[in-house]
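Dear all,

This email documents one entry for the complex benchmark we are building for the journal club exercise. For each entry we list the sequence lines for every component of the assembly. Then comes the predicted three-dimensional structure of the complex as a token string, followed by one or two observations. Please use this as the template for your own entries, and keep the labels exactly as they appear.
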Amino acid sequence: MTALTLARRAPGRSVDDAPRARRPMRTGTFVSLLAMLVVTAFVLLPIVVIVFTAFKPTAEVNAYPPTLMPDAWTLDNMRRIVTELPFSRLVLNSFVFAGGVTICALVFDSLAAYALARIDFRGRRLLLVGIVATLMIPFQATLVPVYQLVSDLGWVNTFPGLIAPRAADAFGIFFLRQFFLALPRDVDSAARIDGASEFRIYRSIVLPNVVPALLTLGIFTFVNNWNDLLWPLVFTTRKEMGTITSGLTLLTGPGGIIPYGVMMAGSLIAILPLVVAFLLVQRRFIESVATTGLKG
Amino acid sequence: MALAFLLPALVILGAFVVWPMISAFRLSFTNAAGFGVEEWVGVDNYVKVFTDPEVQDAVVNTLQYTVLFTPTAVLAALLLALVVNNPRLPWRSFFRTTLFLPFVVSLAVAAFAWSYLIDPQVGLLSYWLGRMGLHLGNVLEDPSLAMPAVALVAVWKNFGFYFVIFLAGLQDIPASLYEAARVDGAGVLHRFRHVTLPLLSNTFAFVLVFAMIAALQAFDQIYVMTGGGPYGHTQTIVMEIYESGFRKLELGFASALSYVLLIATLLLSVVQFVFFGRREEDLA
């Protein structure tokens, strides 16, 4: 019942396709539309539940029969999550970790991609194949030796330990190389004749032309790292060095009987930055995901 | 010159991907335990990997998870892409955005939300299903339902990603082909069978393998929702690697297990590269 109410309300937000709807609709299309509204409501349900439950008093969260929306809205859950966990620290850690990985990876990947796409040198093809081959290695499979290495460097529970192993990745190099290859070569030949250095060409000619690609890769990297659980779980053993994603799981461990309302408040804070960022850039982001078959 | 550009990335990839891979191979023949001496134990770890009942359960569970997750996510994505690709459907961009939205939510958070929704006492979904006469009980404690539940959470998170790739694949099919088929009197099913399916086959294979690779790495939501339980029924390979490598500190054994995961992923990746190459050609 509530799902239907939600579904009916939802489409009001999108106006760009509206004129099309005015034409008389075929039965088939109408059925499709109804089915899509039901599916959409179901897909949104967990997110809607996170939002509403975060502001529900505990009595209502545990009431039977359960309800979707709170009767009385409260900030108690928000207040409580801050005392259960070093919450602001975890959010900060998430920003530093995901942001650090993103910035490093964008710089290092684009530098490498530039060399592979625009500089002729011996063994280029072989090197590219080698880099692409590392794409096939799941990080879970090398976790033990990577941990040993990070631990030998004394980097467990530090930002370098979290960030450095991910500061460059084969997918980003491969992805950016495709965009660099597509740029016409005449401009940089001209610049080269005028005596511009390779770095100058990379910085002032090539990079400004691939901003959308950098943005897509950046968001993708940020989202993946922000959301990752296994990585921070392994590389941080101290509670205050965890990320928001790994920190939240501490609430549910053995003995950690935490009210759902508090968990949902934490979840809401964890997803909010990503959902907002996604909604701001969603059109371009979805399109570039679609055309490149971006890897997760 | 090129070297200066490549150096940072090569150092990182060398130190944190290539070297660990070699290192894991060496470790897998030792009884390394995190500190102190490590002895060469030959293929003992691999013998354990292939005979230990706990590992075999984890392998079977991972396959079961893959079989539950992959077809569900891929077919749901394909079906929705076909529906949303209909140009007469209103609010298409709204549907596209909404269906993709779960992809930016972490599996851990998705696991919290779904745990609450299916909570036997206070869960909204269990309540609604109960009203419809479907009493599932305590899903996450039920040996036969726990695995479908954790697989479903991953379907929820990931199908939107596959959906968007399918949608792009569908939009790459020239409209003229459909026109021609229509002129020849082909109905909807005929057009799907003879135009859509063949032209989408590469995208389909790509997404399928992609989803299978993701399934082999199942961890996050399982760690949160069941911790591998009940009675090890949702214990996967990566859960096993995490526990042996970072809880029990059996690094040698964990490394041998890692190589099983690595080989399985490599095999799937080779298939994927073949199709990815073909897809690139299609797009060009």
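Observations: Confidence is low (pLDDT under 50) at residues 1-18 of chain A. Chain A touches chain B through 107 residues (CB under 8 Å).
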